[in-house]
Amino acid sequence: MNIYKNFSKKYPVLLVILTVLFVYGLLKLTGLVNVGPLSFGIREFIMAVVVFIVTFIFMGKEKVSFSAKGFRYSFRFVRGYLIVMAVIVFFGVLSNVLDSVVNDEVTAYKPIGVINIVIAGLFVGIVEEFTFRGLIFGGLLQKFGNSKKNIILAAFMSGLLFGVMHIVDSALAGEITDIMGVGTAVLKTIQTGIFGVVLAFIYYKTRNLFAVAALHSLDDFLVFVTADAGNTKLTSFVANSGDNLASARIYLYIIFTLLLVPSIVRCIRNLKPGEAIPFDEDFLPRAVEFEKKSKKRK
Prior knowledge:
By secondary structure, this protein is mainly alpha-helical. 75% of the residues lie in helices and 0% in strands. It is built from 12 helices and no strands. The chain has helices at 2-10, 12-30, 39-59, 71-77, 79-102, 111-144, 148-165, 168-172, 179-206, 209-228, 246-269, 284-297. Helix 6 (111-144) packs across helix 9. The radius of gyration is 19 Å and the shape is globular. Mean pLDDT is 79; it is low at 229-233 and 274-278.
């Protein structure tokens, strides 16, 4: 843990680069694992275990200790966003089912595909939250300090990197071929980046990596179900002009981005420099405090 603190304070940029390379390399390595129709879910499980161990070793057990405190507080910040997404998912699922019925083919929601998505949904949050909010956002705060300005700076830096990582694979593979591809890539980066910023603020207030991992997993699970529930391999976030769903992606990315703006405003308003505590101290008292506040409001 002391190694992580000292390294992040002295070399924050190098910490970010090494962390990104580690996760990207792990993603490519697990991509070679051929485990049949459940490959997507099992790859996420393997990555979650590895990232959890790395976080445990470098940040200490108190940063990855499970606590129910802060969960209720966390969901309040993205409640509207998740409700709208759930409505869209409902119509997406209905469309998939009706399409199968009309074509007289049971192609949507095959048991193996659903199991695959459930497994992936459970563990994808741990992989990305322990990496981007735990190691990267936490490491940047070690360097910058706990002023309101620095918390915001660290949140947006880690959020931007989080957004870029979602389209970098498509970019390197040459999947962005026209203006529509560029548009969906940029909008996806913004939308995902803003979601990452909100999660960073929530993590700072609750000191609970599992709380933001749960939010992240729920968000991704809803996307998985809507995007491609009947298949074992999900589609890219980038869509070019030849894709029939390209325009739909544009609209959805814009809608989800706008829905997250109020959450960012609320998070920033809740950042009070006077109440900031060193980020490398025990996180649990902060989570307990906000749990009590949420109960009093009710």
